[in-house]
Amino acid sequence: MKWRCALIQRWLPAYPDGDLSPFWQGMVRSHLEKCPACREELAGLEAVVMNLKAAPRPEPDQAFWDNFNRELHLKLAQSVQSVPEPPPARFLKMPYYLLGAPALAGLLLWVAFGYLNPERPGLPPQPQLSQEQKALEKTPAAPRLAAPAPAPEKSEAVMMVSQNGHDMHGEDDLDLDGDLDSTLAGMTETEREAFLKKVRQHEKDGSCTRESLAVCWA
Amino acid sequence: MTDPQLVARAQEGDLPAFEELVKKYQREIYGLAYRLVLDAEEAKDLTQQAFMQAFVHIKGFRQQAQFRTWLFRIAINQCYNYLKNRKKFGDPVDCDEYVLVGEDSPEEELVAQEDHRRLYAALSRLPAKQRAVITLKLEQGLSYEEISKVLGGTAGAARVNYCQALKTLKKYMQNEDDYEVAVRPYPKMVTRVSRR
Q1: Domain locations along chain B
Q2: Residue A19 domain-assigned?
Q3: What is the ipTM of this complex?
């Protein structure tokens, strides 16, 4: 075989259908006109193609296709029923170890609110409240020096007596503490009687307490 | 209804639309699988598997190619996997399974039967890819461009593959009479000697 025949026969199977480029189509055509070996090769290839096209193709009957479609329908129906659920969104696929961050944030918030809550037992007193108390103690310092207020339990006792409706006619009925006594001690007899009358009247009315009256009197 | 419309409905989960596509292409797919595996029952199973795979993955079909081409590719991949798993490359074919029609006299029928026996024996010796190329080109009528989309590669590679397959088939058919005697007389020893 010449080298030109080998080159041409490489493209011979595609020649009858015209699938070659125009250049190679012309080259093969011109070569076939003067080369009997290549013409014989082309005839052999065409015989093979004819044999292939004439070969019986599998032609199953209608019963085969009915059975085929029935089986396939069952398989398709099963696959439709067994379609898995769509996967959850990406943000729901957070790893478990990342759940510690929200938990830690919640814990910190709980501790912060608990620390700021003044009614919570076991926590240290707030420094701001003590300062306010000092400020309140400093502002009424001048009147308290003149007439200091009695203890709260004493005034409650006086209020209880007045509310029960008993008249307090003498000085002995009055339960006076040391500050009020010192106030009364600085008064004359007439002033003391006038003060005690006022006290009894106001206690009967309930409009004023003894402490405030003592302060006003002073 | 056209293929794109049926495919669009099947992509929405419409089973009857997909079954319409199945009825349209089942004979072509079955013929292709039959040519590749040369077994009627296996071809039927592979055809059903190909349609199942197509139904499962039809939502990923973007209709950039023809549905027929895409279906051919799925069927050929199924056949390749089957042949790879079963090691069926080059298995002998029983030509008595084929039904010969259109012959007049018993002598002509005998000659045609002998030709077909040689043809299928030669086809069975071809590599699966060359068998697929010949089937797609001669029986399904696909162009080289479509064959390249089905089998991968370029159109030129598909044409080279087809030419090589046809020449190999012709050679096998000519030597088929001597094939029974000539197949591997001293397989490994001769190979080693020739390589040295």
Answers
A1: 1-89, 91-180
A2: yes
A3: 0.71
**In whole angstroms, what is the distance from residue B169 CA to residue B164 CA?**
8
B54 to chain A: nearest residue by CA? A76
- Confidence tier at A90 by pLDDT (50, 70, 90): low
Domain that holds residue A10: 3-54
From 3.20.20.60, 3.90.226.10, 1.10.1740.10, 3.30.379.10, which CATH number describes the B1-89 domain?
Answer: 1.10.1740.10
Looking at domain B91-180, its CATH class is mainly alpha
Residue A81 lies in a domain: no
Rounded-to-10 torsion of CA B174, B175, B176, B181: 160
The predicted structure's pLDDT at residue A130: 57
Count of beta carbons in the 10 Å neighbourhood of residue B95: 18
Q: Select the residue of A52, A53, A71 nearest B48 (Cβ to Cβ).
A: A71
In a domain, A150, yes or no: yes
Write down the pLDDT at residue B54: 92
Q: Please give the residue that has the higher pLDDT: either A91 or B149.
A: B149
Nearest Cα to Cα of residue A65 among B99, B97, B92, B51 = B51
Q: Mark which residues 165-184 of B lie under 8 Å from A by CB.
A: 166-167, 169-170, 173-174
Q: What is the pLDDT along chain B (196 residues), one digit of tens a residue?
A: 888 899 999 888 888 899 999 999 999 999 989 888 888 888 999 999 999 999 989 888 887 888 999 999 999 999 988 888 876 555 544 444 444 444 456 777 777 777 778 888 888 888 888 889 998 988 888 889 889 988 888 988 999 999 999 999 888 888 765 555 444 444 444 444 444 4
* A11 in B contact zone (CB under 8 Å): yes
Token pair of A158 as six digits:
């006086």
Q: How far apart are CA A169 and CA B65, in angstroms?
A: 118
Number of domain units in chain A: 2
Chain A residues with CB inside 8 Å of B174's CB?
A: 44
Q: Is residue A99 part of a domain?
A: no
Report the alpha-carbon angle B145-B147-B150, nearest 5: 115
Contact A79 B56 (CB under 8 A): yes
